[in-house]
Amino acid sequence: MRDEPETANRLAAYSDAVFAVIVTVMVLELRAPEQATLSALWHLWPTVISYVVSYLFIAIIWINHHYLWTFVGAPTLKLIWINFVHLFLVSLLPFTTAWIAGTRLASTPVALYGGLFVCVDLAYNVFERYVLRHADVSEHTIRMARRRSLVVLAIFAAAMLVATVAPRVGFGLICAALLLHVRPEAPGSRAR
After folding, report:
1. Residue 173 has pLDDT above 80, yes or no
2. Cα(106)–Cα(86) distance, rounded to whole angstroms?
3. What pTM value is reported for the model?
4. Which of 64, 81, 145, 156 could pair with 186 as two cysteines, CB 3.0-4.6 Å apart?
């Protein structure tokens, strides 16, 4: 059908626009200090670190989303809704980023931040599983992607729980988990 590639491209373009808006909203939260000294920047460390991690998270999500999108033929209504749920959860990232920055990485905001990462990762896992099940990839690739996804999800969940008593350790676990998704294809995976 002639409209299938156009629909897939429109959905990918819409997703790209949502990611761009999310990054824009996040950067609007960055406020310059009133003082004209370098030492005034030191007090912004929670804002800077939370922004950098959230930006990295969005970059990784976008790269992985873009990678998976290359396997999508004609998007089904189910895939469109899965994508919308995923984007909705990612859109909450600026709120949690601002909260952990404003509270200087306090335990409740970092735990919620970790919880959001769990939710985003769950939505991504559903998206990834759906796309790969309908793509021309090997069962081994699907298995490796699933294993990686479960490990990342477990680390995010642990980070959320750890953050309730040790927020900086929980935040560190979140950062470590992100590294497992830097490359969009799972280690050991291969296309058919």
Report:
1. yes
2. 26
3. 0.90
4. 145
